Amino acid sequence: MLDRAPRRSVTPALEARDVSVRRCGTSLVQRVSLTADRGELLVLLGGQGSGTCTMLSLLAGRAVPDAGKILLDGRSPLHLADAGDLVVGEGPVDADAVLRGHCSVVVPRGRVVLLDRPLDGLAEQDANALLARCRASADAGDAVVVTIDSAALAARHATTIALFVAGRLLSWGPPAIALVPALQLLGTGASLNDGVAVPH
Q: Is residue 8 situated within a structural domain?
């Protein structure tokens, strides 16, 4: 059963409401709802084909959902042209450039920072350093959303984890809660990269 994060009373910085995407008859994202708040490092966790990169593209306004909607500060639809404080980076070099200089000062309103697979090709030490920078950026007031495939790194740095498997949001919440289904999958010998089917 899907673990839901607690409802928040304030308008989240970024929100996905029941979004779905299908391409060539295949569901890439299936009825996903989640939020990212300022002061939060949200990790979209999943292996290749899990739907995390598609989800980030939706959150960035680079892809349009077939169903549902994306809200930025409660406004819809989200388009990059009117996104204002939305910053998107891809890969480790762009991620570092996006975060550089923004971690040690308190941002009055905070940005929304989306980073797609920023750890690809990085050694473990560098990956930890980059995620620590992401967490510092969130602590300074940004809403930071990152796609990665390492449960260990997510557990170490994230405030919130959204675990994706085969296009579905399997769990969402603090690391201690959200990673329980991942540990159960790994206990069966499955991998987050296996595209394990999730029962309806």
A: no
Containing structural domain, residue 125: 37-62+79-187
CA angle 55, 57, 60 (to 5 degrees): 110
Please give the pLDDT value at position 6. 46
Q: pLDDT digit string (tens) for 21-72?
A: 998 878 899 999 999 999 999 999 999 899 999 999 999 888 889 999 999 8
Any idea what the CATH number is for the domain that residue 168 is in? Answer: 3.40.50.300
pLDDT value, residue 42: 98
Q: Is residue 9 part of a domain?
A: no
**Tally of structural domains, the chain:** 1
